[in-house]
From TrEMBL:
The chain crosses the membrane at residues 21-45, 65-88, 95-111, 123-141, 153-177, 197-216, 223-243, 249-271. It comes from Candidatus Mediterraneibacter pullicola. InterPro entries: VCA0040-like. This is DUF368 domain-containing protein. PANTHER family: INTEGRAL MEMBRANE PROTEIN, POLYPRENYL-PHOSPHATE TRANSPORTER. It holds the Pfam family VCA0040-like. Keywords: Membrane, Transmembrane, Transmembrane helix.
Amino acid sequence: MNKNQNGKATPLQFLFRIIQGALIGLGAVLPGISGGVLGVIFGIYKPIMELLSNPFKNFKTHVPKLIPVFIGGVIGFLGVANILAFFLNKYPDPSVCLFIGLISGMLPSLFREAGEQGRTKGSWISLVVCMVFIFALLIGLKMTSIEVAPNFLWYLFCGFCLALSVIAPGMSFSTLLMPLGLYTPFVDGIGHFDMSVLIPGGVGALVTVILFAKAINALFDNYYSIAFHGILGIVIAATVMIIPMESFLSAGSAIVNIICIVVGVICALALDKFNSRVKVE
């Protein structure tokens, strides 16, 4: 899709960027999904990281085209919290299965992105090592079943995890917060605009971006294939670990769950196809 003659994005491109931003914001808060992964799939992860790692240098060139993405991100992140809490409480297993379908449908696109600069033996080693590490981490957290009382410091930690899920694709902040019992109070606090949650969460996220954005950006610049295949391993392991196995024991529940997974896959593939047609520079 071409831009207007003055170089500005067309109305469709602007709207599409808002939709992409909303999905990234949605992915940032949904269990098992990483906003960073969606950013990679949509082709806007790199400019976002360039802006975060060098905000003064890249402000004029990057901010104008990322404004609709940021608008959509806020809409997706804040607007979904209450809806998410409702569906996770009312229909937990079908909701999670829909998310699994969305992630699974995005894996082919993510695999293509990972191989954009070729694949080496180190790429495959990175994939396997990261996958095994995440499996071990999540299984360990499930076995220990540690729960903590939410407070200011723990919400700082939630903000850290949230920012990490955006700047480090594949890292879903819910992965660490759910076993600790922090995910639900954090999401509820966001949905109700609770300042005792939003302020420490925002501070934690901001500090994380300042400390780690430049390092992660350099990692992808210098070791693109290895870093990206590591992401693939993380996404695969995290997706497998959120499958509600026990709900597949009942025939009725299994059918509903499978339908939700299929719907998620179809939606993800359709989104990927649409995204490939609407080029956002």
